[in-house]
Write a structure and sequence with these properties.
Number of domains: 1
Helix content: 10-25%
Structural class: mainly beta
Distance between the termini: 70 Å
Strand content: over 45%
Radius of gyration: 26 Å
Largest sheet: 20 strands, antiparallel
Mean pLDDT: 82
Order of helices and strands: HHEEHHEEHEEEHEEEEEEHEEEEEEEEE
Shape: elongated
Length: about 475
Amino acid sequence: MKTLLNKKVFVAISILATTFTAQAQYLRTSYFMEGASTRIQMNPGLQPTRGYLNLPLIGNFNVSANTNSLGINDVIDITKDGNDFLNNNTLYNSLLQENRLNMNLNANILSFGWYRGKNFWSFNAGLRMDIDAQINKDMFTMMRNMNGFDIESVAGQKQRYNMGNQSVNMNAYAEVGLGLSRRITEKLTIGARAKVLLGLARTEVNIEQFDLDLDIPEVPNTGNMTQEELMNYEFNEEDWYGKGYSYNAKANVVTTLKGGGMTFDENNMITGFNLDANNLGIAGTGFGVDFGASYSIFKNLTISAAVLDLGVMKWNKNNTTIAEVNGSENVIIDANNYEQYIGGDLLSLERFDFKKEEEADYKSSTKLSTTVLVGAEYGLFNNKLSVGAIYSSRFVQPKTQTELTFLATLRPSNALNLAVSYSPILSGGKSFGLALKLGPLFAGTDYMYFGENSKTVNAFVGFSLPLGGKRKPFSEL
C-alpha cells in the first residue's frame, strides 16, 4: 500500500518530537563574549571587538532541543530498546497528556562583518529550519494496544482514544541579511538587521478532532501464559476479524514545496507524497527584521535588549497541496480491510480518508517565531571579567518558551573568551552552559548534560577568521 508515512518513520518522528524541543536559535552563553561574532546574531546592537569572516558551512552551525516530558536518559533507553520502546513502561509513564515540541536548526553558508568608523556592518546568508509540534499521549496508548502491549486490562473491551489537539508545523527557508550597528554616543549603541527570506518547504498537520473507538481482541489462553509472555503477546491478523473500528476526525494537512507535495488518485483521495529533486526551488518569499540596543548606565554596568525575527513568510499557492478530513467511519474488520485499518502503516493519512481540497481556506502567510531578549552585565577587572543575566522569550507554538540565564564571562583578549552559564527553567535546573572561543575556533552549549535526565540540549560550533581592524575607542572616532 502506497503511503505518505510508513509506521517506522512516523513512530521515529513522533518519539523525536516528544524528546527534543528548542528554546532559542542562538547560543545565549556567548551573549557577553565580545570576541565572538555570535553575539551580534542575538542583538544587532552588540558589536564584537573586531571584524570577522565565518567560513562557508563550517562558520556557524547551531541546533537546539528541549521537551516538557522526556529527557536525555529516555532517549538512551529508546536507543537501547530499539523497536521495543512501546513496551517500555518507564518511558510511556514519562509522557504527559500533551507533549510539546519546538526544534530549530541554523546553518551558516557565509557571514562576515567589518568596522567603518562608528558603524559595524554585517552580512549573513544561511539555512534555517523551525519545527513546532504537540503530540497526544493517547496516540502512544493506541499504538501500544494495537501492537499487543499493555493489554492485560483492556483485552476484549472497546477502547476510546481521544487524539485531538495535535499539530506539527515545519518551515525550512534560506535567509540573507544585512545589518548595521552604530555607536550613537560613548554609552549608547543601536543596531538593526534586514533579512530577505526564501521559503524552501512548509508542512502543517492540524488535528482538531480525532476520536477513535476500537474493539480490542481477546488474548487466548491467558491462564497458561506467564506475565512476560502476556506482556510480549502480539495479535495475529485473524485476532482482529469481526472487531469494530470507528472514528470521528476533523483535520487537515498542508504542504508547500516546489517540485513535490502530496499526490492524489482520480477520486482526489490521498495516495502518497512525491518529491522531484531536479525541480526543487523557491516556494515562498518573506521579510524579517532584528532590532537591538545596548546602553552603559555607568562605567561597569550595561543593559541591552533585542527583538529578533519580526516578520512573515508568504507561501506560493501554486506550490501548495491541501488535504482535509471532516467526517466519520464505522466498519467491521475483515480480511478485505485489515491492511487499511489495522495492518500496514499505523497512522497513514490514507487510512483516514484525507481528500484533496483545492478551494480550502488557504493560509498563505506564516509568522516568524519572534524572540525577545533583555540582558544586564556588570564588568570587573577593567572589563576582563563580567557577570550578568539574560531573560529570553520566544513566541512559538503551541506555547511561548521563556528562559532566564545567569552568566560569568572571561575575556582577556579577542583570541580567548570563556563563558559559563546556568539556565534553570527549561532544563529543570539539571544542566549548565559552557562556551569557548580560542583563536578562530568556537564551540559551546547552553545546556551541558552532566548525568541528570535533562529535558533540554543544544550545541553550537563555528570557525571564524578576523577581518579588518579592531574596534576603536569612541573618543578616537
